[in-house]
Request: fold
Amino acid sequence: MMQTATETAPARRGGRPPLSESRKEEIRLEIAMAAVRLFTEHGVDGTSAAQIAEAAGISTRTLWRYFPSKEACAAPLLSVGLGRFTRLVREWPVDRPLVGVAEDAGWFSDTSAPRILLILDLLRLTCTEPALDTVWVRCFSEAVQPLADVLGERLGLPGDDLRMKVNASMILGASHQALRHYASRPPGALGPSLEDTLRAAARMGLAAIDG
Reply:
């Protein structure tokens, strides 16, 4: 008995196609930027998850799929630079001193001025909002192992080697302190730019690895 086209064709699944990882990251960053704008204007206590979701153009239910708390919404803006730094170290030629990474143009090449201003607003908020400071510290803590793995690949050692973890912690700690130092400056105060402040700290940490 001959089957009809309807009988032989595979059933089509309903619903939307799954989002790519890059699109998910874009959504996370969009939520983060909306959250920081609201945190800056109203404070963390004065901002609700529903307000963040509305500003980001998503439902509150969707927001909770991406973040466990409203404070955690800020994490992508805090971690984006950490991921970029680890990629730069991974791609750096093994025959060149690692300290040269501090001079690489890739640090801020794809970061828009509005995003940098939001990051600065967020860094200043961490000085007065303990919950956001906790998120910031967690971002740095979670960045240690990926950087330790990259350093281990470069030096021929396992990423879980204590020396690699200490080196990664030292480099990231230098960047952390540089950001805190810059964010604590009074508005309008003269001094090195954010980029120059980060580069100076990175040179210190990376030079120790080369040594």
Observations:
- The CA atoms of residues 53 and 191 lie 37 Å apart.
